[in-house]
Amino acid sequence: MSLEVTDLTIDIGDRRVVDGVSFDVPDGARVGLIGESGSGKSLTALAILGLLPDAAVAGGSVRWNGRELIGLPDRELADLRGDEIGIVFQEPQTALNPIRTIGRQIGESVRIHEGLSRSEVRARAVAEAARVALPDPARIVSRYPHQLSGGQRQRAAIAMALACRPRLLIADEPTTALDVTIQAEILELLLSLVTDDGMSLVFITHDLAVLSQIATHAVVLEDGRVVETGPISTLLTSPASEVTRGLLRDATATLWSPDRGDR
């Protein structure tokens, strides 16, 4: 299955915030959307799944395995979310429901899409918690989000997104709120899971150093427009746009920051 985004536009009121964005994600590919805050990368991701704010209007084309998603009824989009396309958000504290147990939230998509019994859902939730290396998974599925650390909450959010083994994962800055050590663990986990399942990946970030660890190709955005595309190796060695050169300078400064040590 492949994702094809063609001339995507997003308007909020009389302002065009995404203007003619196009890129492809072939089956099994790992593509990054990168840019500074306000570049349109997160809105682009939300448009793919029909999760834009009510005030936003999308145009152009988003095709998943040949099926047009722009304008698709929400009920049909809901059938795709979690089943064929999963999403991990930046801040799990807001993505997770504070009054539901971790196990109930991990098991929700398999209950909906696979029609499992209550006992089967719990067993699946425990298995998925173990898969993302949550400690003592049989116990942790009975806990609530506030009882977990930030890194554990993000692992739970990843388990939720991948429980139904989607063919495409969208990860919207999933490590930004985490410290450097936990960030590295989450990136390693995501890469392992995506590779093992043969999933396609759209990884959203403002950090070229982070993107280089998980994606092979990148789409660079500025003010809602694509300014450069290409392999990560090319962006790191021969950036063509000033935006990418700025991202590279930031990445280099971060990698050699005294706060990070010699990493």
TrEMBL record:
<dbReference type="InterPro" id="IPR003593">
    <property type="entry name" value="AAA+_ATPase"/>
</dbReference>
<keyword id="KW-0067">ATP-binding</keyword>
<keyword id="KW-0813">Transport</keyword>
<dbReference type="InterPro" id="IPR027417">
    <property type="entry name" value="P-loop_NTPase"/>
</dbReference>
<keyword id="KW-0547">Nucleotide-binding</keyword>
<protein>
    <recommendedName>
        <fullName>ABC transporter domain-containing protein</fullName>
    </recommendedName>
</protein>
<dbReference type="Pfam" id="PF00005">
    <property type="entry name" value="ABC_tran"/>
</dbReference>
<feature type="domain" description="ABC transporter">
    <location>
        <begin position="3"/>
        <end position="248"/>
    </location>
</feature>
<keyword id="KW-0472">Membrane</keyword>
<comment type="similarity">
    <text>Belongs to the ABC transporter superfamily.</text>
</comment>
<dbReference type="InterPro" id="IPR050388">
    <property type="entry name" value="ABC_Ni/Peptide_Import"/>
</dbReference>
<keyword id="KW-1003">Cell membrane</keyword>
<dbReference type="InterPro" id="IPR003439">
    <property type="entry name" value="ABC_transporter-like_ATP-bd"/>
</dbReference>
<dbReference type="InterPro" id="IPR017871">
    <property type="entry name" value="ABC_transporter-like_CS"/>
</dbReference>
